[in-house]
Amino acid sequence: MEARALRVEPSRPASKRDPQPRIVGVSAAMQRLFRVVARIGPKDITVVVSGETGTGKELVASLVHAQSTRSSAPLLTFNCAAIPGELAEAELFGHARGAFTGAVEARRGFFAQADGGTLVLDEVGELPQPVQAKLLRVLQEGEIQPVGSGKVERVDVRVVACTNRNLAAEARAGRFREDLYYRLAVVELVVPPLRERREEIPALSAEFARRYGERFGNEDVRLSPALIELLCQAPWPGNVRELENAVARMVALGTSAEIGVEAFAGALSLAPAAPVAKPTAKGTPSLREQIETLERSVIARTLAAVCGNQSEAARRLGLARGTLMDRLRRYGLESEAMHGPQVSRSAHRSRHHGETTVRILEATANAAGGRPR
Question: Fewest beta carbons less than 10 Å away: which of 120, 134, 214, 300?
Answer without folding.
Answer: 214
